[in-house]
């Protein structure tokens, strides 16, 4: 059976272009990186790299498995973040009212770190005019955060 650690080493070798560069990035011996890749290849019964030249080259099977390995590690990170959020009893929903004139892709990019930090929280973003916020509160859609236009 392969491990998350072996997948991390596999991805790092692909990202850095060599076993030695991956070893430096992971702060390991190059032999340890080579052994992790060899053990992963044995565990999955697939050759991931062609080692005929000085620089390892992904095989077709390696190219196929790389995005899946990245997805698995992303899901593991999400799982760990969710466990942490549950343990800290973070909010599960946040409603944010934003003045229509402020809403932009740049504004959404500012909020992305919140989604990463609080993976179990559902963020509901409402675009409205400053004057409609009062109506939202009356009908029970109370914004936790209101961002008026900046003058």
TrEMBL record:
This is HTH lysR-type domain-containing protein. Residues 1-59 form the HTH lysR-type domain. Gene3D superfamilies: Winged helix-like DNA-binding domain superfamily/Winged helix DNA-binding domain (1.10.10.10). Belongs to the LysR transcriptional regulatory family. PANTHER family: HTH-TYPE TRANSCRIPTIONAL REGULATOR, LYSR FAMILY TRANSCRIPTIONAL REGULATOR. The lineage of its organism: Bacteria, Pseudomonadati, Pseudomonadota, Gammaproteobacteria, Alteromonadales. InterPro entries: LysR_HTH_N, WH-like_DNA-bd_sf, WH_DNA-bd_sf. One of its GO terms (molecular function) is DNA-binding transcription factor activity. It comes from Pseudoalteromonas nigrifaciens.
């Amino acid at each position: 059976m392969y491990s998350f650690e072996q997948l991390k080493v596999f991805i790092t070798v692909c990202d850095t272009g060599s076993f030695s560069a991956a070893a430096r990035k992971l702060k390991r011996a190059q032999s340890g990186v080579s052994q992790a890749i060899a053990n992963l290849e044995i565990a999955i019964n697939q050759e991931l790299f062609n080692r005929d030249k000085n620089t390892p080259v992904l095989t077709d099977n390696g190219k196929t498995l790389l995005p899946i390995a990245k997805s698995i590690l992303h899901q593991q990170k999400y799982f760990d973040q969710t466990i942490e959020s549950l343990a800290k009893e973070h909010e599960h929903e946040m409603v944010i009212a934003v003045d229509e004139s402020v809403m932009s892709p740049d504004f959404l990019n500012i909020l992305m770190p919140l989604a990463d930090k609080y993976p179990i929280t559902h963020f509901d973003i409402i675009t409205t005019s400053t004057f409609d916020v009062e109506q939202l509160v009356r009908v029970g859609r109370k914004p936790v955060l209101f961002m008026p236009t900046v003058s």
